[in-house]
Fold this protein.
Amino acid sequence: MTTNRVLVFGAGYSGRVIARKLASEKAHVAGTNRSKEKADLLSADSIRGEVYAGNGISQPLRELLHEVTHLIVTIAPNESGDPVLNDLNLCKLTKLPALKGILYLSTVGVYGDHDGAWVNETAECRPTSRRSRLRLEAEAGWQRFAEGAGVPLAILRLSGIYGPGRNAFINLQQNKAKRIIKPGQVFNRIHVDDIAGAALHLLRVDQSGIFNVTDDEPAPPQDVVTLAASLMGVEPPPEIPFEQANMTAMGRSFYEDCKRVSNRRLIKSGYTLLYPSYRDALQTMWSRHTWRA
């Protein structure tokens, strides 16, 4: 892999797993967090921690940006746009001398609702939520930045993220799991280790373009909870009709979109999923005791 010096803007749940994997392969990796306390924790994984809260680039970060060969961006946009792009433009850091490529982590939410039909990277994007519209705008912004910098850009559109510390087992343990029934509703998912695996693969083969990073099996959300409860040997929570469910506005908004997302382009590029379905992942996490954070 040609990756030498990597900066992960947003070394949180997914970003830290990517950074950890890169560091294990002897890349020089730095990652940002919003607080010094969290940034300092990255050193345990041989990752250089830097503070970045989306409101300006510090001098140490500026110096680092002049050395990085690859940027990986996981930070979500806000009402002011993409904070990393805004700060890079403000600081006139639009042509980084050592930069060879960019990965931007987006979401399959940009496709919006397709009434359960299969979608791939060429499908029309018609986001239904404000946060997904902002993501689509951020994708366009990073495409312009990459073109101006003369470097390839890979956009990873992620489905529902889960893994250690963030899964149906945890929700059941904390009595937060719900089996909400909306006939015909399906979601795709992706294990955090497959996000890291796909990111490293795309860096290694120097791929650019848009890739859906998702599992093979879109499925009703209640099926995931039922399987997790079975593996734990506990009773699943009762089924609740969608119309009667007590949900936050954000939680309810996820049910506005229904689609089946294809990962064929990623697989054809040479990547093999570690967890092709939620069943593979849940059974492995339970048997190996890797479901806790």
Notes: The mean pLDDT is 96. The chain has two domains: 5-160+189-213, 164-188+219-260+276-288.
